[in-house]
Amino acid sequence: MNYLNKIVFGSIIIFLMMLFSCENDIKTIEMVTQRTKIANLSGKDVHILYSDSAKIVVDIRTKEINRYSNSEEPYVEFNQGLLAVFFSSYPDTTSYLRGNYAINYENKKMWEVKGNVIAKNKQGEVLNTEFLVWDENKKLIYSDKTVKITTSEDIIFGEGFESDETFSNWKIRKVTGTIMLKENNNEESSNNNEVSNHSK
User: Fold this and answer.
1) 20 to 30 A Cα–Cα from 124, which one of 12, 136, 150, 164?
2) What stretch of H or E contains 23?
3) In this structure, how many other beta carbons lie within 10 angstroms of the beta carbon of residue 11?
4) What is d(CA 139, CA 65) in angstroms, rounded to the nearest whole number?
5) End-to-end CA distance of the chain
6) Hey, where are the domains in the chain?
7) What DSSP state is assigned to residue 125?
8) Does the predicted TM-score (pTM) go above 0.70?
9) What is the pLDDT of residues 141-178, one digit of tens each?
10) Contact between residue 162 and residue 170 where contact means Cβ atoms under 8 Å apart
11) Peptide bond into 91 cis (omega under 30)
12) CA-closest candidate to residue 135, choices 103, 100, 165
C-alpha cells in the first residue's frame, strides 16, 4: 500500500468512525427527547386541593392530567381542560376559572389556560377570552388577547386584561366597545381608555 492509499484509507476510517459517533449521538438525543415526552404521572378524573397556611384556597378538577417532571422545564398538562374554584375561606367561593386546555409550569408557578376560557367572580361578573395566564407568585391572572367582561350593567370588549387571581379587582387595558344593558339597551360606545370594575 503506497503512501497515498494509506492516506485515503485512513481518511475513510476516520469518516466512518465520525459517522458512527454522530449516529450514536443522534440516537441518544432521540432517546432523551422521547423520555422527556413521556408522562411519569397520569390520572383520570383528578381532584386537586391547594392550601396556604393550612387553609384550602384552590380546588382544581380535571378529566385528565399528565405530569412531565423529566422535562428541562417540568410541567403538568391538562389536555381535557380544568375547573379551578377559588376560596376566601373554604367553602366560601370567591370565583371560578375554566378552560378547554391548561398547562402548569411547576418551577415558575405559571399557568396558561386556553380555549373558551371563562372566569366568574362573586359579584356575578363574567370574563370570556381564548387565552389567560395565572401567575401564582404574583397572585394575578392576565391576558394580552381579546376579552369580554359581562357585568350587571354592561358588556365590555377590549384588548388586554389584568386582575387579582380571584377576579375581584380587574381592569381592561384597552376598551374597544361597550354595550349598555340598563337604561338604553341599544346604546353602544367605544373608546381606547382603560376601564376597571372600580372606575365604573
Assistant:
1) 136
2) helix 3-36
3) 10
4) 23
5) 93
6) 1-37, 40-196
7) -
8) yes
9) 999 999 999 999 999 999 999 999 889 899 999 999 99
10) yes
11) yes
12) 165
